[in-house]
């Protein structure tokens, strides 16, 4: 699935998120990872241009309670806490959307790009057990070292010890209302750098 602005509308995002969760869980099952029972950390959405980012940010914030927007790898990224988590299954819901504008140094999937699962305290054992089918690990901070699997369509699944929202809190951030980074790109329509659609 590629990105379109309408996908940031709550109903369409819910529908897309459920399908994406089901698809990624099925792919994990083929690799011997039973991901369907893990709580969700977040859903990451990548958009092709800064202009798309601002539109999607406005749309998602309309049904959210707070955000964090940090500059990461040279451009802002949003973490947006939903007023009502998106239910993707029995007792399973996505509390947070990570919204990512284009990054010009690599080729990425646009639209629903990855799902973060919370493995919990057994994270090290999880890594040992599934090492053969994992693509890599990220060392983002001492409390954030998710492992991930990349699929052929450039979507990912990521497995965290604790959720991304909890990572932010542990790192001292606070979700209070909405704040935006002071960011003015030279060309709001630069990009897209899209593949696999
Ligand atoms: Fe993420």
If you had to describe this structure to a student in words, what would you say it looks like?
The structure is a single chain. The chain has a single domain, classed as 2,3-Dihydroxybiphenyl 1,2-Dioxygenase, domain 1 (Roll), CATH 3.10.180.10. Helix content is 24%, strand content 30%. The protein has 4 helices and 8 strands. It starts with 9 loop residues before the first helix and ends in a 27-residue tail after the last helix. 36% of the residues are buried. Residues 42, 44, 98, 114, 116, 158 line the site of fe (ii) ion.
Topology:
Elements: H1 10-30, E1 40-46, H2 50-61, E2 64-72, E3 75-89, E4 92-100, E5 111-118, H3 123-130, E6 136-137, E7 147-150, E8 156-160, H4 164-170
Parallel strand pairs: 1-4, 5-8
Antiparallel strand pairs: 1-5, 2-3, 3-4, 6-7, 7-8
This protein binds fe (ii) ion (FE2).
CATH topology-level name? 2,3-Dihydroxybiphenyl 1,2-Dioxygenase, domain 1
Span of the ends, CA to CA: 6 Å
How would you state the average pLDDT, rounded?
Answer: 91
Estimate the strand proportion. Answer: 25-35%
Structural class: alpha+beta
Which residue ranges are poorly predicted, with pLDDT under 50 across at least 5 consecutive positions?
A: none
The tally of helices reads 4
Shape: globular
- What's the CATH H-level superfamily name? 2,3-Dihydroxybiphenyl 1,2-Dioxygenase, domain 1
SSE ordering? HEHEEEEHEEEH
**Count of structural domains:** 1
Radius of gyration: 16 Å
Which CATH class applies here?
A: Alpha Beta
Share of residues in helices: 10-25%
| CATH architecture annotation | Roll
């Amino acid at each position: 699935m590629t990105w379109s602005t309408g996908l940031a509308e709550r109903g369409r995002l819910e529908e897309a998120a459920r399908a994406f969760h089901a698809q990624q869980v099925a792919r994990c099952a083929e690799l011997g990872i039973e991901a369907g029972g893990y709580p969700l950390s977040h859903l990451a959405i990548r958009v092709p241009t800064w202009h798309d980012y601002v539109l999607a940010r406005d749309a998602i914030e309309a049904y959210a309670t707070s955000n964090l927007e940090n500059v990461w790898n040279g451009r802002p990224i949003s973490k947006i806490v939903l007023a009502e988590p998106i239910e993707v299954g029995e007792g399973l819901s996505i509390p947070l959307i990570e919204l990512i504008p284009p990054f010009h140094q690599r080729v990425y999937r646009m639209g629903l790009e990855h799902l973060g699962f919370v493995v919990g305290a057994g994270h090290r054992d999880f890594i040992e057990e599934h090492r053969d089918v994992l693509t890599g690990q990220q060392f983002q901070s001492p409390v954030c070292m998710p492992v991930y699997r990349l699929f052929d369509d450039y979507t990912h699944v990521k497995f965290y010890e604790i959720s991304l929202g909890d990572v932010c809190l542990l790192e001292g951030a606070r979700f209070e209302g909405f704040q935006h980074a002071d960011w003015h790109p030279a060309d709001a329509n630069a990009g897209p750098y899209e593949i696999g659609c």
